[in-house]
Design goal:
Layout (H helix, E strand, L loop, with lengths): L4 H15 L3 H4 L1 H6 L9 E12 L4 E2 L17 E4 L13 E9 L5 E7 L6 E2 L7 E10 L9 E4 L6 E5 L16 E3 L4 E11 L6 E7 L7 E5 L9 E8 L4 E7 L4 E13 L1
Antiparallel strand pairs: 1-16, 2-15, 3-6, 3-8, 4-5, 4-7, 8-9, 10-15, 11-14, 11-16, 12-13, 12-15
Length: about 270
């Protein structure tokens, strides 16, 4: 039986009201597409990473060819590009300003806009940076993106903690941080829906690892079978609490590239 008119409208309202307590857990995508969330603090997550040279031991899927070096102390990071054109003063043809979202030791998130100086190191003002979840080119010249690889270093100006790939490369996330890793900020939880990956060879595999604190052991929560896999792997969805770290790691039998992605959303707790 098909209902329409006032009766249907009334039933729709009942259905909408009944889903309100769990929109973020099981129905965020539908709620967002219908405009039900308004200007709330729910936000979509779409993490992508490309490791251009995965070794035969596990490595994080990000812009560096190694496991991600999760900082354990406060940092005052440096930013530098491999191109002189990524310069905000004087303005070059590439990237000018990079916005860096960072978290302190208790998980409070903030951001800082950093004006690049080409191949010259520029240190951030923030000196209590424990995690960098996101970074992207905010303003740029005629090229429309960064022309070189923008590297974010720890205080020691040697340990790489973030990579923004240049324009016209095979790297994912051009103009934004290349990395399938994240730390959940205080007051939020991440809900992961899908896990995407592409194996580097016939025996390549991927694992989604989660740890609840920086001193907890890494626990595998999802993994791919050992073959080239491109279809999304549906997750339960997987709820990851505030303060937890997670990352996708790749392993192959021969050096090659590895790509992975995670989709879901971040919701307040």
């Amino acid at each position: 039986m098909i209902l329409d008119g006032p009766v249907r409208t009334f039933l729709d309202k009942i259905g909408f009201a009944a889903t309100l307590p769990v929109l973020g857990r099981v129905g965020w995508g539908l709620a967002a597409s219908q405009g039900w969330l308004g200007t709330g603090t729910f936000s979509p997550l779409h993490l992508t990473g490309l490791n251009a040279s995965v070794a035969v031991t596990e490595e994080t899927v990000w812009g560096g060819s190694a496991m991600y070096p999760w900082p354990t102390a406060d940092q005052q990071p440096w930013l530098v590009s491999s191109s002189v054109n990524d310069d905000g003063a004087p303005a070059g043809t590439g990237a000018w300003v990079v916005r860096v979202w960072w978290m302190n030791s208790v998980g409070v998130e903030a951001y800082e806009d950093v004006t690049l100086n080409g191949v010259g190191n520029v240190q951030m003002v923030a000196s209590t940076v424990r995690r960098i979840n996101r970074a992207e080119v905010l303003t740029c010249g005629v090229t429309g993106s960064n022309e070189g690889t923008i590297t974010i270093y720890a205080t020691d100006a040697a340990t790489v903690i973030g990579v923004i790939p240049p324009l016209n490369t095979t790297a994912t996330g051009v103009g934004a941080l290349n990395g399938c890793y994240q730390t959940v900020p205080a007051g939020y939880q991440d809900v992961l829906q899908q896990f995407h990956c592409h194996a580097i060879d016939s025996a390549g595999r991927y694992r989604l690892l989660v740890r609840t604190t920086s001193t907890s052991p890494w626990i595998p929560k999802a993994w791919s079978y050992p073959y080239s896999y491109t279809a999304p792997i549906q997750l339960p969805p997987l709820v990851i609490p505030a303060g937890a770290d997670y990352m996708v790691v790749s392993l192959g039998t021969a050096a090659g590239y590895g790509w992975a992605g995670l989709t879901g959303w971040r919701e307040p707790t």
